[in-house]
Amino acid sequence: MSDLLHVFIGESRENLESASLLLEKLHSDGYSQDAIDNVFRDLHTIKGSSDLFDIKPLTSLAHAAEDLLDSLRDGSTPLNESLCDLLLEALDQISNWFDELESGSENVEKWQPISTELAGRIRACIHADTDDADGGESEQAAQQSEASSSVSAAPTSFLALGSQTQLQCIEAALECEQPLWQVNYTPDFDCFFRGEDPLTVATNTPELIAIQVTPSKDALNDVFQCHLGIVVHSSADDTAIANHFAYYEGQYQRESIALGQLVSAFWAASEEYLVAAEQGELWQAYLDGDMQHSARLAEMVGMGEDVTPEEAAMCRIFQLICQSDTLTALLESVTHPADNDSVDVSADTPLQQNQANETPEDTGVNQARNEILSQQLIILQSMNNNADSPVFPSVKRIVTGLLGQSHTQGASTPNQLANAIEQLLNATTPVETEDAPDELVTPVVEESTAAPETTETVSETAESAPKQERQAPKTLKVNQEKIDYLMDLIGELTVAKNSLPYLAKQAEDIQEGRKLSKQIKAHFSIVNRLTEELQSAVLQIRMVPVSHVFQRYPRLVRELARKLNKKIDLVMQGEDTEFDKNLIESLSEPLIHLLRNSIDHGIEAPSDRGVAGKSETGTIVLSAMPQDDNVVIEIRDDGKGIDAEKIKMLAYQKGIIQEHQLDTLTEEESLQLIFAAGFSTSEQVSDLSGRGVGMDAVRTMVAQAGGTIEMQSKVGEGTQFKLILPQTMSVNRIMMFEVNHQMFGIGLDSVVETVKVSQRDIEMIRNNPVLMLREKIIPLHCLRTLLQLPVSDNESDEVCVLVVNNGQGDFGLIIDKFHEGIDVIQKPLEGVMAGFNHFSGTALLGDGRVLLIINLQELLSCR
Amino acid sequence: MPIVAKQKVIVLDGHCEIDAAEELEQWLVSHPKGQVNAKKLVSAHTAVLQVLIYHRPAFSVWPEAGHWQWLRQAMTNGREA
Amino acid sequence: MKTIMIVDDATTVRCYHKAIVANATRHIEEAENGIEALEKATGKDIDLFMVDVNMPKMDGYRLCQAIRASDELNAVPIIMISTESETKDANKAFSVGANFYLNKPVDANELSTLVSLMLGEVSYE
């Protein structure tokens, strides 16, 4: 389960980050409903997930923040900057706790007082909006009591329909097996001016069963305003109806009407009349169960002379009911809902025998099973025995699974299935079912009232989803692993294509192979081009603007500056510069470190700055600029600069340099000492930058991203760090060379030239070999020696020198043989090899050999 | 002409557009005992039908076409004949 | 092989529930919201849905309605899992077609038993 903790922290950190960014925005730009909603959601997720672990203080704090956000988003508490800061403080605290959890050093008990204090402060800011809460509750209670007073579950609008309409509906519902749809269409009063013709639309509804139109005012003052209420019934399916009324969204609602609801609505309207009809004879016949007689009587009554069309319709419906088993059963459940309670508990049922035999372990399962069955029973009872109820199939499936096929085979209606359940549950169940009517009614009422809006909005979302696809900016959310996989494939493709020249060469050597060789070469150039394009296309996918990483920094700077009582302005430039996503993230840490250094050691306290004649507010400029194939990231501050002398002394004290070097090192070189391993200038380790990460670590991190770091500084004026990074982890042009029969590579952009010289051209200056090349002194290094390879057995006078530049000057590398330049995808060293800093990576050659690629900087520093 | 006003009867014929609504209403107001002959009525704009629903005039002839049942119901809806 | 679809916008929660219900005889599908759930469910034989209520884009209630309105998925049992513990929330869940309602955080044993029962793995023939 510690994996789960890992997932939780990972996900929650994302939530924290997103929430922080939004809070920053709220802080500077003010209230935004969207932003608040999202922050709320982030905290809600953290709270919910944290509940799975034993970290209550964290959960409570998140809860407090969530509650404050809730009151912010519904407007009962106004937003201000200090609330943002308070919430940010909470987020920081949670983040710190995550750090502890990750490192295993958490002390949850110690968290409690912090959580209590902070949560207390947060909750104190919440404006209690008790009036609204009360109002809302009493409103709801009223609705619920209203609902429970009516036994019928039909939508009230249906009840208001005339019996003739009801008749048409019932007849239609009996015929077709689909549920009926009732569309309540209330056109806007000004719809005529929009060119709408509601009644035409209504009368053209597909599979129309009935239309009922009612004036909605007492009198019509303006002929050109529409004041009508239209109710349409149709047996078409949901989509057809939605499509038909598509243009009239907002003016109509639709709800599905089950046959049971039709019957209960009918009964509500007709009960009085029918029970009294024929001096009660009609009703008596029905109660006696004499359906035929009852139907005949109904027909007769309906044809009477004084009967109104409505009454005639009522009779006709009653007739239909008597003639249909389905309808009779439905009427039964409306007139006698208590019938469902009769339970036939047979002591001999197999189930109870099973229960008698159950072992203690089974009780948990039995209990769960009974709970499930009881719940399904309640759901069944709310269906009014309508087998077309949307939830019936799933309930049947579950119950069949629990009770077994034999017990549920005959059950084709909800009532039958309910009986099957009741027979097999124990005798205590009836008590529950009697209580059920309250629950029965509320969910069903909610279903029918909820249905119009929600079904509409469900289809709206379904409709708008495709619309969104058409309109939204064309972006895709892609799993990063897929991109990485794609990159790997392309890498392999690059390598694979490289073997074609080899093959071509081999073909040349075969008789009659010249032609083949030519063809291979021709195709190679095509494949080469395509591969390069493919590669750069995929790499482009991974490019993100640096603002992606930079946007965290203003807050960081603000916080640190505040803690140190310094005034600092962070100016960011070139945030749109694009960079490989992986690379930019790996740079985040070194950049933060550099920023912290600037803030901690670079920028002086406001008073000191004043004394030095500078403005009290220090400036740090963070800029990103593309330069050829690279991106140059600069961090410049106008602080007190780095004192080269001081550095020199410290380096000497730490044994990094020797005494004589105190004199020989130039200012430039002295400054570079801060990159040396084991060097740290901070005498007091402040909690900000004192994580033990020195500049050498920064340089390593930058190197791992394939870049280099430079530093310049002037005492009293400021310091500048420059990071030069390859824009993409791309194809590198590598120059191959050989030492001791082994192939190595070096970045082609480091190579200045290749020269072959004779032994005599090499001179010694102070025991170090150098080469005079066109009036320039080029210090030489023998790669054999540097790589600790065996001494050469080569007697030849010729020496191959690879002249390279590492950004600080030209050097010469003595190697055995030159080879050509090739394109490779450089992969970093992993595992055991990862510790070897003088190699920056490996590449695969076309013939399967592995090329070790030299990291020039590192190599030269190992002397 | 879809709408033809006569002395005691106003005739609705074929397809009645929205502008017929105004004329129909004025005629019904000025002829409280007038009747409507909708024998050949095929279709009408809602505005026209709305006038009928609100004024509930007597019909001398109901539409021949079968799809007007709802209109009859609407004319008496809520106010038993 | 039974297929369970777990729908929740919190990765941690999905992981937790998956850890509880996954085994060699069950295949688990995951989705972050109702829309994704419906997309992933089409053409597959889902045997059980575990649905969170609060999700962006399409919440649990609307997902339930969509499932119940679908010809393909209509008969699939739905367990609704929510942070809300009031009766009205449970009622709402049932009114949109859920078959069972659980509160978060879910007890591992309870969920495990419930799922076995819902999948019909424990029958009383």
UniProtKB/TrEMBL annotation, chain A:
Residues 1-101 form the HPt domain. InterPro entries: Bact_Chemotaxis_CheA, CheA-like_dim, CheA-like_homodim_sf, CheW-like_dom_sf, CheW-lke_dom, HATPase_C_sf, HATPase_dom, His_kinase_dom. This is Chemotaxis protein CheA. Pfam families: CheW, H-kinase_dim, HATPase_c, Hpt. Residues 444-465 have a biased composition (Low complexity). The keyword Zinc does not apply. Residues 731-863 form the CheW-like domain.
UniProtKB/TrEMBL annotation, chain B:
It comes from the Bacteria. This is Uncharacterized protein. It comes from Marisediminitalea aggregata.
UniProtKB/TrEMBL annotation, chain C:
InterPro entries: Bact_response_regulator (IPR050595), CheY-like_superfamily (IPR011006), Sig_transdc_resp-reg_receiver (IPR001789). Keywords: Phosphoprotein. Residues 3-119 form the Response regulatory domain. GO terms for biological process: phosphorelay signal transduction system. Pfam families: Response_reg. The modification 4-aspartylphosphate is found at residue 52. This is Two-component system, chemotaxis family, response regulator CheY.
